[in-house]
């Protein structure tokens, strides 16, 4: 396996895990403190406690972005050149 394939497969795995965590958060509120949901700059606070991400943000921004990135990574993996080796289609 080429290093580029390994990187793309790792990225796909990471994106799939993020999508699963986002879906579980919408279903049950699990993973509310996951680092992937934390804002870049300032956390929203109420009574001295950090608020979890808004469900609409997860549903309308986080998940579609990760799903789009997953499709792009899968498409990129499919477009990588393949080399014939002994009659079988083998990745170089």
How would you describe this structure to a colleague?
With 92 residues, the chain is of the alpha+beta class. The chain has one domain. Helices cover 55% and strands 13% of the residues. The protein has helices spanning 3-28, 55-79, and strands spanning 45-46, 49-50, 82-85, 88-91. The strands form two sheets. It has a two-stranded antiparallel ribbon with strand order 1-2. A two-stranded antiparallel ribbon has the order 3-4. α1 packs antiparallel against α2 (55-79).
Taking Cα atoms only, what radius of gyration do you get, to the nearest Å?
18 Å
Please tell me the total number of domains. 1
Strand content: 5-15%
Strands ordered across the widest β-sheet = 1-2
Mean pLDDT: 90
What structural class should be given to the helix and strand makeup?
alpha+beta
- Low-pLDDT runs: none
What is the helix tally?
A: 2
Largest sheet: 2 strands, antiparallel
Helix content: 55-70%
Topology:
Blueprint: H1 3-28, E1 45-46, E2 49-50, H2 55-79, E3 82-85, E4 88-91
Antiparallel strand pairs: 1-2, 3-4
Helix pairs in contact: 1-2
Using brief descriptors, characterize the structure shown.
13% strand, elongated
């Amino acid at each position: 396996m080429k290093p580029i394939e390994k990187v793309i497969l790792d990225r796909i795995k990471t994106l799939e895990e993020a999508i699963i965590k986002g879906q579980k958060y919408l279903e049950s509120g699990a993973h509310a403190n996951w680092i992937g949901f934390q804002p870049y700059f300032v956390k929203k606070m109420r009574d001295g406690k950090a608020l979890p991400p808004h469900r609409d943000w997860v549903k309308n921004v986080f998940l579609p972005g990760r799903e789009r990135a997953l499709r792009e990574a899968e498409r990129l993996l499919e477009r990588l050149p393949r080399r014939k080796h002994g009659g079988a289609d083998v990745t170089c």
